[in-house]
Amino acid sequence: MSYQTIEIEKRDKGVTWVTIDNPPVNAIGEGLMQDLDAVVEELTNDESVRVVVLTSRHEKIFLAGADLKGMIQNSGDFAEEENAIEKQSARMQACFHRIASMPKPVIAAINGHALGGGCELAMACDFRMMGKGRIGLTEVSLGIIPGAGGTQRMVQLLGRAKATELIFTAKQLEAEEAVDVGLITRAVDPEKLEAETQAFAETLAEGAIHAMGLAKRAMNAADGPVEKGLEVEAKAFADTFLTEEPGIGLAAFFQKEKPQFV
Length: 262
What we know:
Helix content is about 50%, strand content about 10%. Helix 1 (about 30-45) links the parallel strand 2 and strand 3. The longest helix is centred in the middle third of the chain and has 19 residues, at about 80-100. With about 260 residues, the chain is of the alpha/beta class. It is built from eleven helices and eight strands.
């Protein structure tokens, strides 16, 4: 399929790069969200795709937030537009939730500023590799709050205390500091971001992809009651045996060989 705001490139070992290209600043609009929804569905159903890398064509911005200027222009009275704004927030949340729920590993290759909505999209991915720019939830500095899942995912990633500090102060973190607090997975030389991300993705692609997807399903349930999480984990554990991966992995274990998952 072809998309207006996204380019797809299949690379070695089942790694597929998804590049957002929505000039001028990669703002989150309905067109981009429709493309992201369709891309997630397409790549989820494509058995040749084992790992997805999400990045940006923009030289300085990974992803900007919602089109606030447009929201202001369309909202002479914010009180009258409250329902429309709430629906926009729910729409962004649903789009990013589909990425977070994708049953394959998803890596954000952050090659520019990931502030506000860009940070929220990055946090919806399983891994965050960052080359340059700054990352953070900066909405409070504008008198608003994150609206695409940021308040929830930052608490999940960093804990309540650190997330509160970063959200209330709207702090923008350089890559090394973001690694230290646990917001990103790895800080990378900007010139090596693409190569190192591809290498990391290929390492993941050699693993048990179906098991990873089921593990993600169980981990995503960890935010609710523990009883519900354990129920989801038990079902996901049983579902692993519906694939060929346990046979491959266990046979290799007993033969003291490296498993060859396909």
